[in-house]
């Protein structure tokens, strides 16, 4: 499947950005960009709630983005949101309104996933190089640090410090003096200190700043000739001069510099303080700038999914190896679960693509909890999936995957919050049945089974004589039906003559 135009939306703590790109081979050529200064992070109250004003700014901006995206297919648009939504306690309610305004789903991504996408965007906007690069992205609420080679991120971290959060903590009402600025620098230095040794040990040959704050600082240094002669980007000497000019002026608004953007005045003091600490703690003398950042990274990640190189597949394989999951058992359970699902839906239809992916991923990871303890391993596995950094997965993706792993066994009341008719019920049923049928962990052929959905639940047909020949499994199926009945879903198990069975031999269909 290929598309000419794809779109990435970045709902940052300071600005919202929409980037539309034209796909030409394996490259993306930006054709349109929209930016709205929303300052979502400024709307976070002490109780970590997004206030009404910030919500309205966000909704208005997304309605404008939604108009530009009219006619785009759902699979050609990926929208992500970062620190402000990660922190906000009312994020779920706000997200519903935001998705309605934009017209597309919005994913809340974790800090390291944000870092991964930032690096992909920055690297693809730079000329190709064989050496390692350090990319630093100072946002409104967080700052990301990534070391990578070519377009592959290798070391990623996200620290809770940004231009908006630092304005609120250190530069109330925009006031800047030596004491306030020093306090902000020290705070940032303490955050960076925790990762500095690992990053310096890993090493890099070029430092790159991405996103608006780095671009703003670089522009001010170049336009006002604060860097040493002939030096472009951000230099240690130029940054020190800018720092002193800001302190002397008393506020960003009072700075008399060419190229100063009014949109970024509120976050500039915090960004300069953080950048100064970055240079100091990591021993940086010079930093270049990349025009690519999170929106472009989102586009390239989306392109990878079209080309069947989904980062989420790589992540699942990594987790399966890391937690020493039994690969042979994964193959058995996946073969059966997918075959059962294929009797209820057409697996090759685009609208079912996500369901098939999530069922396969859930099977691959359903036993990772065994690395913690055998008792209630499904709960351990769900916790790991729900809280780990999983590149490529949004917070919503991880929650869905964790739910499936949690639901593989035991009582079903824990899933009772899922609405009736939710596609996940079908996936849970297939996963539970496959796990139950392969309890022996061997390759003994399974009988011909037929499953289908009914208005009140599911129906399972098994060959006559099979229950008597397999009393332990038959008893487990009866218990399983009782568990479903307790949450109001009926599972009917029937024995039917071999010649009328419409099922398939699952082993032979592998």
UniProtKB/TrEMBL annotation:
UniProt keyword terms in alphabetical order: Hydrolase
InterPro entries, per the entry: ATPase_NBD, GppA/Ppx_hydrolase, Ppx_GppA_C, Ppx_GppA_N, PyroPPase_GppA_Ppx
GO biological process per UniProt: polyphosphate catabolic process
Molecular function via GO: exopolyphosphatase activity
Keyword Iron found: no
Domain named Ppx/GppA phosphatase N-terminal: residues: 22-305
Pfam families reported in the protein's UniProt record: Ppx-GppA (PF02541), Ppx-GppA_III (PF21447)
Positions of the Ppx/GppA phosphatase C-terminal domain: 312-480
The protein's name: Ppx/GppA family phosphatase
Species annotation: Candidatus Accumulibacter proximus
